[in-house]
Design brief:
Layout (H helix, E strand, L loop, with lengths): L7 H6 L11 H9 L2 H32 L5 H11 L8 H11 L5 H25 L4 H8 L4 H12 L1 H16 L3 H6 L8 H11 L4 H34 L3
Helix pairs in contact: 2-12, 3-6, 3-9, 3-11, 4-6, 6-9, 7-8, 9-12, 11-12
Length: 246
């Protein structure tokens, strides 16, 4: 923040010194050169797609594994743990071939689907820890009263694991917002650039102006910082609850 209010020469001379005058021109230039207006829109599409898909699919999967609803629940857990260790670089070429064939390149929505798949194993394992803490008597009582599986999830389990849902949503959303490798591979047109790619484009056009780069970095992290400030209580409670089994 300090360096974003300086000129490039001031940053080079002394990065730790206070600015001689608080000049916000760097922010206006960074917003223009990085095309953050379009970039933020694309980042929101990608992040929202990722978070929604992960929560919609990982939540019931975590419940099934936690409750042992299938015989291969333990095997699924091992599979997910192994999947978390597989580098995405192994799938870039086949994914690119599929995206190119179906015309899905430069589409933040389709990239969000890929990012959701990458984060799915982690989300399932995190949510499983929250479901493990819910007493089995709660869903059983609801089922005795005639509730279906979806009703048990919606009205009984979702409220009980809501801190976990928020925690996973924040973690996955942060990963999607900062995602670089998949985005730079499949988002090839400048109109589809995310905020991360918009910021990186500044390094090519204004690499000598460190003040401009610092302003771009501040613009990039500000939305995540605001969301975390408002959701930090849920986030901390969720991490504490997921770390201890009842």
């Amino acid at each position: 923040m300090i360096n974003s209010l300086k000129t490039g020469a001031e940053v080079t001379a002394n990065p730790l010194a206070l600015p001689a005058s608080f000049d916000w021109a760097n922010y206006a230039e960074a917003w223009q050169y990085g095309e953050f207006g379009k970039a933020f829109k694309n980042s929101i599409i990608l992040t929202a797609t990722t978070v929604v898909l992960v929560l919609l699919t990982a939540t019931p999967a975590a419940y099934v594994i936690s409750a042992g609803k299938v015989r291969i629940a333990q095997g699924l857990s091992i599979y997910l743990l192994v999947a978390m260790t597989v580098p995405i670089q192994l799938f870039l070429f086949p994914l690119y071939a599929v995206f190119s064939k179906f015309g899905w390149l430069s589409n933040p929505f389709t990239v969000g689907i890929v990012v959701a798949a990458i984060n799915m194993p982690l989300a399932v394992m995190l949510l499983r820890a929250f479901f493990d803490q819910v007493p089995s008597s709660l869903p059983e009582a609801a089922q005795v009263d005639g509730a279906s599986t979806m009703q048990v999830l919606r009205y009984v389990l979702f409220p009980a694991v809501s801190p976990g849902l928020i925690t996973v949503g924040i973690i996955v959303g942060l990963m999607a917002w900062n995602e670089y490798l998949i985005s730079t591979t499949f988002l090839q047109s400048s109109d589809s650039y995310t905020a991360t790619l918009g910021f990186l484009s500044l390094t090519g056009t204004s690499s000598a102006d460190q003040g401009l780069l610092m302003a771009g970095a501040a613009i990039l992290i500000l939305p995540i910082l605001v969301i975390f400030i408002f959701a930090q209580n849920y986030f901390v409670d969720g991490l504490a609850a997921g770390a201890v089994k009842g």
